[in-house]
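Appendix B, example 12.
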Amino acid sequence: MALRALFASIVFAALICSAPGCGSSENRTIPGLQEENKVKGAHIEDLKSEIERLRAENSASKATLKKEFEDSLSKVQSLNEQKVKHLEGRNASLMLELGSLRQGRLAIEQVIDQRPRVERSKEIRFGIERMIWIALVLLPLIFLAMLASKYRTLRAHLNSTIMRQAGSVRGAGTQQ
């Protein structure tokens, strides 16, 4: 804007200085000077009309540029709003995905944390099973051992009873 004003001032000064009779010593009489003033006045009027035309053109271009700027600004703002809405939607979907991933991670951590407990429970269950098998195998063996011991004791008692009776039968048979 300042460059245009400077350029307009330079053009204006150049036009005034390039006017006929500028700096020349001819027509220094009053009618010549009046004629020169008329020519310069007409030239000034032409320059004023040119300035008015340039101002009107400048204001028209300003209005056009302002309208174009406002249009482009509104387009950029609407695009930014759309981008913001898109990014907010994307952010929301990513937050939901993050929440589900966190839940999955927590579930995996719980499974991992349960592994030692599961191992301990397997060991305890294996120990209980071992005890049951030992009881199922040893109890009949113990019962059989006790039965064999009682059978042996009973057999020994029976043998001694038979021997006593045989001895008493023999002793009774020799006495008769």
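The two ends are 167 Å apart (CA to CA). The chain is about 90% helix and 0% strand.
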